[in-house]
Every structure is written in structure tokens, then in C-alpha cells.
Design a protein that fits this description.
With 300 residues, the chain is an all-alpha fold. The chain contains 13 helices and two strands, in the order ααααααααααααββα. The protein is 69% helix and 2% strand. Strands 1-2 form a two-stranded antiparallel ribbon. Helix 4 crosses helix 7 and helix 10 packs antiparallel against helix 13. It is a multi-pass membrane protein.
Length: 300
């Protein structure tokens, strides 16, 4: 019996260490692309062009980031991006949750019809030109609200929140109605607090979409620098860096003819600038994100 117990203990330890090794390898594989981009962004451009940069810069420099932030419009564009992300996320999640609560009520006779209409939009859309003409006729070009109103309700987010609400105990809503609460008060006081996991999940989806989007700025607000977003300005800077590359050189040169940055180095810096803000938000929503995906995604 003792030999069996010792063999079992050794086998258990081997299994644990195998798991640790496998998880460690998965962590390295997952983190390597990010760490490599970070190393390239902090490495001197000429040295980066030689290759061989993996997890640590060979010649440390802040020049790549200075080239990104040397234009003052970047700071104003970052402010616009923060505003559109905050306002767009709050309004979109609130309106989507209200609509999801409405179509989750069995007594609402048009709930299936409205659900089908929104699901259709997941597969078909009017196209770029009709969308542009619609926005122009609504007089939302060169305005901040073009970032908010067109995508204020998303079909996928609507279905996720509705599925979560369908899984809530119906007795809670009935109790609120018996106490004299109206639909809006029931939604605000009862349903919305219980939906915090799925609200956090959808908020992350919407915030990432708002933060990363630059194409609407290009279409509707490209002529108005006061409404330009960070992603659009970073895209223009990367594009200008790529176009500045001469035919016989892979480098962007300064006024003193010294190599300043390369498209690869500035691309790495731009990637970090665009990614870090969302990465700082995610840890605070991770707990709710997991709960919202597991609960809201499986109930119907």
C-alpha cells in the first residue's frame, strides 16, 4: 500500500508540473507578440531594421513615441476618442438594455417581429453609399453625434442582453409590479442592477469598438480637425510615414539626414498607444465579462 501511495504521489506531482509547464508555454505564446511589439517600439529604428528584436530592445530610445506625440492634434484627438468612447458606451448600453427588456416581455406582441428585424441587420446592410447618404440627409456630417447615433443599438448586444434578462426570475418583476412600480422603474431598480455582468460584457464590446473605430471619422469628419479621433490621426501618421519612405531606403529621415524612425518602428509605437488604454480598462471588467458571457450567452 505504501508503494502504491508513493507512486500515486509521484504521478500526481508529475501531472501538476506538466500542467505548470504547459500553462507557462501558453502564457509565453500569448504574451510574446505584445512584448515583441513593445520591444520594437522602444528600440532604435536602424537597429530594429537589422532584425533580431524579440523581448527586449537592444538600443533603447523614446524617439518612436516622440514622433507619434510631436503633433499637438494628437492630444485633442485623444480627448475626442475618450469622449466618444464614454458617451457612446453609456448611451448605447442603456438604450440597448431598454430595448432588450422590452422585447423580453412575453406580453409585448411585437417582440418577435422586432427581434427578427434586428437579426436581419446582422446579415445584410444597405451598403456604404446609402449609409453615407442617410447620414448626410440627417445632417450629422461634421458633428460629434455621428459617432454615437448610427450604432447606438447593436443587434448582437441586444440578443445577449435579452437572453440574460430572460434568465432572470420572473417573480422579481411581478413583485415590483404588485408594489406599484411601472415598467421604467422596474427596469431601473430591478432589472438593470441584476444585469451588471452582461452590462459589463456589452460595455467592453462597445467601448473597444468606439475606441478603435476611425473609418467613420474618415467618412464624415475628416475635414474637421476639432472632431478628429486618435485612431484616425494615428492612421494618418502611419500612412505619412510609409509614404515618406524613399525608393532606395527603408527609412524616414530627419532634417539633418539622420535616420529618425521607420514605418515598422512607428507602427509598433502606434499599436501600443492604441492598445494600452483598453488593456487598462479590461482588468476591472474581467470578472463581470466572464460571468456575462457564460450566463447571457447560453440562455434563450
Amino acid at each position: 500500500m505504501k508503494n502504491r501511495s508513493d507512486a500515486f504521489g509521484i504521478g500526481s506531482k508529475l501531472f501538476d508540473w506538466s500542467n505548470y509547464l504547459l500553462m507557462g508555454l501558453l502564457i509565453v505564446v500569448a504574451l510574446f507578440p505584445f512584448l515583441n511589439v513593445l520591444a520594437v517600439s522602444l528600440n532604435q529604428a536602424v537597429d530594429t531594421a537589422r532584425g533580431g528584436i524579440y523581448l527586449w530592445p537592444r538600443q533603447f530610445t523614446w524617439l518612436n513615441y516622440k514622433s507619434v506625440f510631436n503633433d499637438r492634434i494628437i492630444y485633442h484627438a485623444a480627448l475626442i476618442s475618450v469622449l466618444r468612447t464614454a458617451v457612446g458606451t453609456i448611451l448605447s448600453v442603456f438604450c440597448t438594455a431598454m430595448l432588450a427588456y422590452t422585447i423580453s416581455r412575453k406580453e409585448y406582441v411585437f417582440r418577435k417581429f422586432i427581434t427578427i428585424l434586428f437579426v436581419i441587420t446582422m446579415y445584410f446592410n444597405g451598403g456604404l453609399i446609402p449609409n453615407y447618404l442617410l447620414i448626410r440627409h440627417l445632417h450629422m456630417t461634421n458633428s460629434f453625434w455621428v459617432y454615437i447615433v448610427p450604432g447606438i443599438v447593436g443587434a448582437f448586444n441586444l440578443i445577449v442582453i435579452r437572453s440574460f434578462i430572460n434568465g432572470l426570475p420572473g417573480s422579481l418583476i411581478e413583485s415590483a409590479r404588485m408594489d406599484g412600480a411601472g415598467e421604467f422603474r422596474t427596469f431601473i431598480k430591478i432589472v438593470l442592477p441584476l444585469c451588471m455582468p452582461v452590462i459589463a460584457t456589452v460595455s467592453l464590446f462597445v467601448a473597444v469598438g468606439q475606441w478603435n473605430n476611425w473609418f467613420d471619422t474618415f467618412l464624415y469628419n475628416s475635414s474637421n480637425l476639432n472632431l478628429s479621433t486618435l485612431q484616425y490621426e494615428l492612421m494618418k501618421k502611419l500612412q505619412s510615414a510609409s509614404l515618406s519612405v524613399s525608393a532606395d531606403s527603408a527609412f524616414v529621415r530627419g532634417s539633418d539626414n539622420k535616420i529618425v524612425v521607420t514605418p515598422n518602428s512607428i507602427r509598433a509605437a502606434i499599436t501600443l498607444v492604441a492598445t494600452v488604454p483598453i488593456m487598462l480598462v479590461y482588468p476591472f471588467l474581467q470578472k463581470y465579462f466572464v460571468a456575462g458571457m457564460t450566463l447571457g450567452g447560453v440562455k434563450e
